[in-house]
Every structure is written in structure tokens, then in C-alpha cells.
Amino acid sequence: MAEKPDAPRDAWLPVEGMSASRLEEWFVREVLPLEVALMQFLKHNWHNKSEVADLRQEVYQRVCEAAQTQLPDSAKAFVFRTARNLLIDRIRREQIVPIDAAADIDALNVAIDAPGPERSAIARDELRRLQAALDRLPPRCREAIVLGRIEGLTGAEIAARMGISESVVSRHLARGIHALAHMLYGETAAKP
Amino acid sequence: MSEAPETEDVPPMNAIDQAAAEWVQRRRFWNWSDTDQLDLDRWLEQSMAHRVAYWRLNAAYARTERLTALRRPGAEVAAQFRFSPLITGIAASLVLALGAGLFAAHALLHPHDRTFETPVGGHQAVSFADGTRIELNTNTEIRARMTTQERIVWLDRGEAYFQVKHDAAHPFVVMIGNRRVTDLGTRFVIRTAASQTEVAVVQGSVRFDAPGVQSAAYTATLRPGDVATATADSMSIAKRTSRDLSRELGWRRGVVVFDRTTLADAASEFNRYNRRKIVIADPAAASLAIDGTFATTDEEAFIDAARTIFGLHVDGSGNGIVISR
């Protein structure tokens, strides 16, 4: 095995002096906006679609582990290089090399100009996009999120208002947050 | 009926996402104790995989903050700002009778308004009868209308730290131009520069209302560690640790704290406190990073560091201080 086991470095208070909050800030600002393009890249280059979300998570993990010692100059180039290396590792490890995946290794070039960060998205579009995402949540889930986020209710108040148990409220909220993350970061903005 | 089918193309949650989503919703919607925070910290410390999953979901949820703009316009707050018809009537007749100008009218209407101001390098604390305390940082101006009826402070310039005695019946409001921060039981700091306003909450929570230039107003409820930045047409919210916040509040102890801060940023921070401005004349020097704690008015220590640590050239012969290679 060529790869080193992932040493559980204590990255939380790293030696190099980069605080976790600074890394988080960088991750949210520079890396998350690339998720749309990253997901497209992974879907396009990996045979098993059901593994794509896990791969994405592993890319983030590797990127942040490296970034805590030094932030890369270009987050974009670094994220896609990491993704490409991850896929190559996987293909090697899985032994059953899918012929076309192997053929594609060299073709794992990155469409770095795929839909990029939308930092400049102006406030209004953002609100419209958020609303569209909200509208696509399953109804009960949306109701819980709306009561919590827009009406400012606590979990207990949401439970009372919706007439359901607190644990079900928790589940709706957790699913809602997860789905919103996918819609806000993992998909192109133009879902009408 | 409880399990509506998952939204079409949202991938299923894996175990880490599930746990991260659970933490995010627990922290946001339920009673949150110090023990909970420790448990969360411990979970985050376990692996980078936990951290990135949590950061991502938390950022997604934070991003929906803007949805609070959909809340029906804050009628209840607006009411606090209206005078009762009776008082307005009296005031109007007074103005007529005296034929006073706008300024005099203002003074009559608000005899309790007081202005406090600090010069460059200044630092002043003001205490009010209700127990509220406001600390003004360098080059700052506030107007305070603290009566038994209303508690409004205008931050006209600079930066101030607010320790507010909460009173639900008389909300404490800070106006920054047309932006408004309403105390919900709190310690917070507001800094305003150019057209930008930054609000950071240390304890408790505040509501921040900022009208957009052409769009609807944004409203956000900020909790400890939240730092909201409003510009002419946007509002963004970031999370800081209490350590980062206390570093930013160094000025209350008379210091500036740099943590891998570029010389350019460090110089502009010093320049807020000193009349003699530091100019970093060389782009390569400007991007060097510096660590350390300096007294806000001790430019000399900073200049020494630039000279001895980085071997830079310092020229103090003109009006300012020019640092170059």
C-alpha cells in the first residue's frame, strides 16, 4: 500500500498557528463555493454515483488537512488536484479496475472553468435562491425550518406548533439543513 | 406520513453528515449548555472529517439567515420609534411658538441627547443610570438618548463596545446610519467605517436590521461569536471563536493583537490610533505576516519590530513613517 495511514494529527490547535476558526473561514469562503464544479467532476469521473457524496467529503477532509499547515495559493487548483488524486487512489485500491475508468485516468483533467464561486451573487438573487431551495424541501421538513429560521421559534416551540414530538422536530431540522447544504452548495444556482 | 420521500436528488446522509446535522440543529434550536459545547468540541476534535462536515452544514444554515428578511416587516420595532401623538403635538406647537429652527427643535424635543467623542488614540467609557456601559474606541462619536422612555444610541463614527442592561420594555437600540442593532440581552461591539458596519456579539444576542439599497431589508439575529458585516447591498455573517473575539477587543485593554496579520493590515490598524500614519511603501513588505501584542499608541515598538525582525528600512523624516525594503 502506497498510502500512509491517515495519522490522527491534532489539527484542532495546530502547531503552525493557524486557528481552526481561520481554517473554517477559509474553507467556507474558498472551498465550499467550488462544490458545484467538484460534484460535477466526481459524478463525471466516478462509476458509482452513490459514492459521490462520500468522495466529496473525503476531498474536503484531505484539502483541509493539508491546508492547516499552509493555505494553498489557489483553492480551486488544489481542490481539483486533490479530487483527481483521490480518484486515482481509489481506482488503484479497488483492483477491479473498471476498464473505462482506467482509460480515463489521464483524462481526469479538470474543467476548472466549470461554474465557479458565486461570490459576487448579489443579495437579491441569493434570497430568491434560498427561497427556491426552501420550497423544494419535503413539506413537514420545510415547515420546521420555516418556523425555526423565519419565525425564530425554538425546537420545543416548533414541536408544540406542529403537534409532533421533539425528536421528530430534530430529525426534520437535521434533514432540512442537510438538504439545504446540498441545494446551496452542490447544485448550480439556476434551478427555477 | 412522517417520512416524506427525500427531495429528489439530494444524496442520502452518511453517518458523519447525520451526526453533523444533528449537532447543527441542536446548537441552533435547543437549550445549549457549556457541557453541550464541550461535547461538540470533543466531537469536532476527533477528526477533520467531522470538522468539514460540520463547517459545511453550519455554513449552509448560516447562509439561510437572509431568509429572515421574509419575516413580515418588523412593525413591533418601528413602533418604538414613534412619538405619541400628544407629545408630537406639544412639540409642534412649541416649535411654532418659538419659531425655532430645526436644531433648536431637536434640542427641545430631545433635551437629554448627549454627544460623546474620542480623539484619535482616545478611549473612553461612559456609564448610564440604567446600568448600561459603553466604551468608545479611538476616533469615535456617539449620541445617546437615554431616558426612561427610550434608549437609543447613534454610532456616528468609529467603534464602540456595548454592555447593555437588558430591559425588554425599553429595548436598547443602536443606529448606524439607517442600520439598526437591537439588544436582546447582551455584550457586543460595533465598528463602522466607510459604508460598512460590522457587528460582533460577545454574549447574549442582538437583532441586526440593515436596509438594502434597492432590495428588501435584511434582518439577522446574532448570537455569541457571530460577526455580521453589512455593506450597501449585502449582509454576511461569519463565526468567530471567543479567542478571536477577545483579540479583536484588545483595544479595551489598550492593545492591538496581531496573529499572522500582514504588515499592511497591522499598519492600518495602528493608523486608527495614531495621528502619525505608517505607510508600507513596498508590496512585498506589506504582505509579511506579524504576530504579537502592542500598545495601541506604541508605534515605536511596531516600527522596531519591522526594522529588527524583518530588516526593513524605516523613514520617519516626513509627516508619516514610511517603511520599505
Protein model, in words:
The complex is a heterodimer of chains A (about 190) and B (about 325). By secondary structure, chain A is mainly α. Chain A folds into 2 domains: about 20-105, no CATH class; about 125-185, Winged helix-like DNA-binding domain superfamily/Winged helix DNA-binding domain (Arc Repressor Mutant, subunit A), CATH 1.10.10.10. In chain A, about 60% of the residues lie in helices and about 0% in strands. With about 325 residues, chain B is α+β, with helices and mostly antiparallel strands. Chain B has 10 helices and 16 strands. In chain B, the strands form 3 sheets. In chain B, strands 1, 2, 3, 4, 5, 6, 7, 8, 9, 10 and 11 form an 11-stranded mixed sheet that branches. A 3-stranded mixed sheet of chain B has the order 13-16-15. A two-stranded antiparallel ribbon of chain B has the order 12-14. The model of chain B is unreliable at about 1-5 and about 70-110 (pLDDT under 50). At the A-B interface, helix 1, helix 3, helix 6, helix 7 and helix 8 of A face helix 1, helix 2, helix 3 and strand 11 of B.
Element layout with pairings:
The complex is a heterodimer of chains A (192) and B (325).
Chain A: H1 20-31, H2 35-45, H3 52-67, H4 75-93, H5 99-104, H6 123-135, H7 139-150, H8 155-162, H9 166-186
Helix pairs in contact in A: 2-3, 2-4, 3-4, 7-8, 7-9, 8-9
Chain B: H1 15-29, H2 34-46, H3 48-63, H4 75-80, H5 85-98, H6 102-109, E1 114-118, E2 124-127, E3 133-136, E4 140-146, E5 151-163, E6 172-176, E7 179-193, E8 196-210, E9 218-222, E10 226-231, E11 234-239, H7 242-248, E12 255-262, H8 263-273, E13 278-280, H9 283-286, E14 289-295, H10 299-308, E15 313-315, E16 321-324
Parallel strand pairs in B: 5-6, 13-16
Antiparallel strand pairs in B: 1-4, 2-3, 3-5, 4-5, 5-7, 6-7, 7-8, 8-9, 8-10, 10-11, 12-14, 15-16
Helix pairs in contact in B: 1-3, 2-3
